[in-house]
Amino acid sequence: MSETVVVVGYHSLADQADTAIGEITALVASVLAAESECLGIELLQDADNPTRVMLVERWPSKEHFLGPHMQQPHIQSFIQRAGAFLAGPPEISFWRRAGSDR
Questions:
Q1: Fold assignment, 7-94
Q2: N or C: which terminus of the chain has fewer CB atoms within 10 Å of its end residue's CB?
């Protein structure tokens, strides 16, 4: 079974880009510390539009991301706070390495 790459795109409120980066950075640290199944997360910010942020995450499977990961207390807490600094829900897409049979 090959790993799943999850791309999560956020768009912060215009005056909350710094807050969003801080909150997302703290969330990434919590995930990496608490969820050994996470195979890595990269945090990117659009060079031309700092209100756009992207996470590139690696997980064992789509099911793990959508199930156990999304139920974690740090994820649920982030979701509850996100309306104060994000313009809406994230865009989430699932990817695999080209040529993989999964």
A1: Alpha-Beta Plaits (3.30.70)
A2: N
- Residue 99: what pLDDT? 81
Beta strands 40-45; 91-95: pairing state: unpaired
- Centroid of chain to Cα 31: 10
Strand partners, 94: 6
Q: What is the CA radius of gyration of the chain?
A: 14
Domain ranges of the chain: 7-94
Asked whether the beta carbons of 55 and 79 are under 8 A apart, the reply is no
Average pLDDT over residues 22-41: 98
> Does pTM surpass 0.90?
yes
Each as own residue / partner, the long-range contacts of residues 10-14 (CB below 8 Å, 24 or more positions apart, any chain) are 10/52, 10/53, 10/54, 10/55, 10/86, 10/90, 11/51, 11/52, 11/53, 11/86, 11/87, 11/88, 12/51, 12/52, 12/53, 12/85, 12/86, 12/87, 13/51, 13/85, 13/86, 13/87, 14/51
